[in-house]
Amino acid sequence: MPSSLTVTQLRDELEKPAVYPHHPETVHIEQTHISIVAVVPPWVYKFKKPVDLGFLDFSTLEKRRHYCHEEVRLNARLCPDIYERVVPLVRTDGGFQVDPPEETGVVVDYAVKMKHIDTAKTLHGRIEAGEVATIHVDRTAHRLCAFYRETAATPETAEAGWTKNLRVNIDENFDQTEEYVGSIFSRPAFTALRNFFHRVLDQHASLFHRRRAGGFVIEGHGDLRLDHVHVSGDRVCILDCIEFDERFRHLDVANDVAFLAMDLDIAGRSDLSRRFVDQMADGLDDPELRLLQPFYKAYRAHVRAKVEAIRAAEGEVPEAHRKESRVLARRHAQWALRYAASGGEPLVIVVMGRPGTGKSTQAAAVADALGWAQIASDPTRKRLAGVPLDQRADAETRERLYTDAMSEKTYAALCEQAVERGRDGAGTVLDATYGSPDHRERLRSALRAANLPHAFVELMASDEALRERLADRSDGAPTASDARLEDFDELTSRHRAPDALEDPRHVRVSAELPPEETTRELLKSLIRLHDQP
Questions:
Q1: CATH topology of domain 348-530
Q2: pTM assigned to the model
Q3: 121-342 maps to which CATH number?
Q4: d(CA 239, CA 118)
Q5: What pLDDT does residue 400 have?
Q6: Residue 204 — φ and ψ, nearest 5°?
Q7: Most buried among 46, 98, 392, 409, by the most CB within 10 A?
Q8: pLDDT for the residue 426
Q9: Are the CB atoms for 289 and 310 separated by under 8 Å?
Q10: Distance between CA atoms of 344 and 298, rounded to whole angstroms?
Q11: What is the DSSP string of 81-118?
Q12: Residue ranges of domains in the chain
């Protein structure tokens, strides 16, 4: 038998009931990107994978033993009754044994022995069952506020609060997710998000320094996720803090809070996320905590995108779980950009401009990067009129399609859908010329009434460039848009672009760049418009 085990061999051995001292009736194996967990009630054994991922190193037996002891020590702070001790996995003549009654055989690995808990009582389990309530969030906030108040800042934790060290962590995440550009991130989204983090660190350095000097950077938890918070009655147990690198748990309390708030957002409970943040800010007498949530939520979402992408690439993870991780990685990447562009709140983005500026291409790219719906005027107009989307209308049909009444009906439909989605907590990307001041003002009025923020992004291109594009469209395959070169002069004369005073939430982006560069500049403009934190 081998003196050490591969991940696959370890998993296979742990599936055998005879390996455990109490010979459980069932064995359930779970895997993360860094751990193999054997659930064998009334116990759980957590093993660290022999991996070196850059941000953690479990590659040797001694390192795994050390970090198992660190896990028990650190988690005693917020969950003292669950973590038992560190136990060996040994190779004997009769096979492998976890936590043998006496020291015999060769130690091939170590595990953290924990009491089994009912995962239905974690915040994740309660949300999945539709049983989470404000009392669960309030009790969690109360427990965390007490913990943060009792945990004093030290010179070591204060050092972590310098923006140069925050930048190291952020840049490391981008270095480690570069290989996932094209799968979980588009290149424009990846670049715009990185630009967001650097801009906030540069422009708000005094805020981060004030937090560091004020004692808000402490040794926290570092991995405050819904499935790590167990609420049973009045008792709150918070498990699985970061043990493998102190720089990830030496952090601003706003950073720690943002992880759980982000998890609540992505679980569809932004109402509880807001309540949790308010409870933490009020309980700690820390109003600035609220200001930093979009920045730190974006950071946390990016971290989770990385973790899920790593798990999705691990061959020993079952394909169904890898597929789930790919979906989660993409979703977290989209939320990271949402936090940068809108603070995570629903936003109506209007991609407007003259025909030929590439509105539909850019609106689709933005909608995909943010995970929001693209609603376009051309297909909406044709659906309302009962005209096939991929068929260019003849003269008689065009007469019917482009009457003032039909335009009013089309833009009213766009507005109605955006408002309805916003009330449901979803953002929207509208794709239309919006060349009429009346249409723009009616949209703004409806959004104000619904308390929904907006941004107009006007794509700009020269007459020469637009004529060339419309000529190409005339010779190409049918599209939902009926605008062609022969329509240019009429459409241009009817288009009344906003002036500088019409709307402060209006930006212009050149549409004469390559499409990916236009998307990048569009996203950067949206982020600047939001002005984080």
A1: Rossmann fold (3.40.50)
A2: 0.90
A3: 3.90.1200.10
A4: 13
A5: 75
A6: -125, 30
A7: 98
A8: 97
A9: no
A10: 9
A11: TTEEEEEEEEEETTEEEES-SS--SEEEEEEEEEE---
A12: 7-116, 121-342, 348-530
